[in-house]
Amino acid sequence: MKKRILAVLLAATMVTGMIPGCGGSNQKSDGKTTEKSADSEKAGETGGGKEAAGTQKSDITLRFIDVNPSPQRQAYYEGVFEKFKGETGITVAYESVPWDDAANKLTVLGTSGQLPDVMTTHPLWLGQFTESNWVLPIDEYAEEHKDEFVDIISKSNWVNEKANYGHIYTIPDGFMVKGIFYRKDWVEEIGYEIPTGDDWTYEAYFDLIKALTDKEKKRYGNSFRGARGAFDPLLVYLQTFTGGYVYDEEGNCLLNKPECVDAFEKWCAVYKDGYVPEDSINWGFVEMVDNFTGGLTGTISNDSEVAVACETNMKPEQWGVLPMPVSTVDHKLLNTSSSPYSYTISAQSEHPDEALMLMDYLVKPENNIEYCKLGGLIPIKKEASKDPTYGEDGPYAAFLNQLNDPDFTVPPMYGPFNYTDLHQDTFHAEMQKYLLGKQSAEDVLNNISNELTKRMKEYLAANEGSAIESPRTLQ
């Protein structure tokens, strides 16, 4: 399968073959790539690429590195690479590095000019990689194929990537999107009708939690998260009352607005009123999932990766997935969306043409679907909806529908500064004080908001020209 090659990739290949030490693109001092100079374009037009004349595809071996290896992932990649070789004649050598060492390993390889042809990379590394000229842009490919991808990629990921780095460099391997997992069999048993569309609000979600609670049957309505990470899903709910923002233009945190205080109390009422297990004040991810799949709780709000546990431990008729509730204020669908890893082409590759072919092959619908099923991810191609797993009646349909919803809005997180200490302790510790009756809702949100305001204003003062992050929509 021969794909049309990007002009920018060809130019990069030819220029790097003629000028020692030249990377895949020129860089501004701020790290953003610039268009190639007329001299570079002329050099590209005259030929002189790295690949020797007469080289056959069967003579080419690409190196691929996985930064989050597992036996299942390695088996998948090696199987796909065999199919790729059968169709193209190109050999792909699989390499891996443990996640904890991945960033350092790729930095060493990049510095020494030994990066593999195609890499799985984390979004947080892209700034360093573009500044160092370690990756090649794929703008033309993205433009040509954008209609094949779900809207969150073409209208959000790639738009922001180009705004931040001057070009598009990555293709996400899949997405994790939050949804409401629920006990479908319990709902049918009690004859409950779940609202849809604009009627599926957070208030409707709280009503569902209450309806599914039956303590005589040892059933609770929700896998409540009270330990580390407890504030993250609550944050999105609070943002439905702030227009999706965390701060105003001056850096003042908005989470202690009166509307947010009321919302905080409603969120916590499912715990204080006994609709969730009492010990869920100490639950984290594992406890939430185990108690949902084990039959103690009727709903759980979490990422699509939970679907793997549901498929493994539950019968298909026992569970389903609902979209995240919409805002009662403007009916916007606020939801977090993340791409665990992305595929990128190394600027040090001697075969960028074939590297692009490999990336395109990895994201073919049938391959991407197989890959995503391993980790509970959402495929990145619209055509994936034809697969029963991701079709209208499949368990992942709610996630795909959200990604293609024009009202889908990704709100910002806590800020561009380091908030690890708050996330590891302060956020859920403050929340637990309210759950235990030791502190008012106003005090909880004031304490959190005051600290966030302090850090955001310090960040803005130290980073002249920085702006408050806005929610991202697909419109």
Record the SSE blueprint.
Blueprint: H1 7-18, H2 38-45, E1 61-66, H3 71-88, E2 91-96, H4 99-111, E3 118-121, H5 126-131, H6 139-145, H7 151-165, E4 171-172, E5 176-183, H8 184-190, H9 202-212, H10 231-239, H11 258-272, H12 285-293, E6 299-303, H13 306-313, E7 319-322, E8 333-334, E9 337-338, E10 342-345, H14 352-362, H15 365-375, H16 397-403, E11 408-410, H17 420-435, H18 441-462, E12 472-473
Parallel strand pairs: 1-2, 1-3, 8-11
Antiparallel strand pairs: 3-10, 4-10, 5-6, 5-7, 5-9, 11-12
Quickly give the CATH architecture of the largest domain.
3-Layer(aba) Sandwich
Q: How many distinct beta strands?
A: 12
Whole-angstrom Rg:
24 Å
Number of helices: 18
Beta percentage is: 5-15%
Q: Would you tell me which CATH topology of the largest domain applies?
A: D-Maltodextrin-Binding Protein, domain 2
Q: What is the total number of structural domains?
A: 2
> What sort of overall outline do the alpha carbons produce when their principal axes are compared?
globular
Strand order of the largest sheet: 2-1-3-10-4
Helical proportion, percent range: 40-55%
* Cα separation of the termini: 34 Å
Biased composition (Basic and acidic residues): 29-44
Signal peptide: 1-20
InterPro entries: Bact_solute-bd_prot1, SBP
Keywords: Signal
